[in-house]
């Protein structure tokens, strides 16, 4: 009996710091060009997006700085580079829209999450504007006041 396909994406890694450092404007889903050992390490959940970012070069989009830890059982004849630059797969129209936003309007491309969808590794990238220090403080203050309100409601 065949196993049913996953309908719910399974999360591999998240970039929580992106929500703190940027105003997220628009999200895109992209595929990843991976080597065999990278796919195996992703299945084991060995990925980190914390210090990664997305760059545009020659009309193509690349993930830079993401760390995929190789498994100990990786083949000995392959030199595994955990932080290599990986190409992202998007439609041509989406790429041109992202290039225009990044070059003309001063947006940044930020990876948000890495997940499995129908057996394929996908990454969610976002068009984002950087937050200033006072914006970050205001967001922290608002979050703290919401927590205090929740506590007060629970106690009464």
TrEMBL record:
Coiled coil, from the record: none
Keyword check for Lipoprotein: no
Protein's cellular compartments: Cytoplasm
One Pfam family matching this protein: SmpB
Biased composition (Basic and acidic residues): 136-156
CDD domains (alphabetical): SmpB
Top-rank lineage group of the source organism: Bacteria
Keyword tags: Cytoplasm, RNA-binding
InterPro entries: SmpB, SsrA-bd_prot
Region (Disordered): 135-156
GO molecular function: RNA binding
Single GO BP term: trans-translation
GO cellular component: cytosol
HAMAP family (UniProt xref): SmpB
Function: Required for rescue of stalled ribosomes mediated by trans-translation. Binds to transfer-messenger RNA (tmRNA), required for stable association of tmRNA with ribosomes. tmRNA and SmpB together mimic tRNA shape, replacing the anticodon stem-loop with SmpB. tmRNA is encoded by the ssrA gene; the 2 termini fold to resemble tRNA(Ala) and it encodes a 'tag peptide', a short internal open reading frame. During trans-translation Ala-aminoacylated tmRNA acts like a tRNA, entering the A-site of stalled ribosomes, displacing the stalled mRNA.
Family: Belongs to the SmpB family.
Name by which UniProt lists this protein: SsrA-binding protein
Organism of origin: Acidiferrobacter thiooxydans
Lineage, opening ranks: Bacteria, Pseudomonadati, Pseudomonadota, Gammaproteobacteria, Acidiferrobacterales
């Amino acid at each position: 009996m065949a196993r049913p396909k996953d309908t719910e994406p399974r999360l591999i890694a998240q970039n929580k710091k992106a929500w703190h450092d940027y105003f997220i404007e628009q999200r895109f889903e992209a595929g990843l060009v991976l080597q065999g050992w990278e796919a195996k390490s992703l299945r084991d959940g060995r990925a980190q997006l914390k210090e990664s970012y997305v760059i545009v070069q020659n009309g193509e989009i690349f993930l830079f700085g993401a760390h995929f830890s190789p498994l100990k059982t990786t083949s000995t004849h392959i030199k595994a580079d955990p932080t290599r630059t990986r190409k992202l797969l998007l439609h041509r129209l989406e790429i041109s829209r992202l290039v225009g936003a990044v070059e003309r309007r001063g947006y940044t491309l930020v990876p948000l999450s890495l997940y499995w969808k129908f057996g394929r590794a996908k990454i969610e990238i976002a068009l984002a504007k950087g937050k200033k220090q006072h914006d970050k403080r205001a967001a922290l203050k608002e979050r703290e006041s919401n927590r205090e309100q929740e506590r007060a409601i629970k106690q009464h």
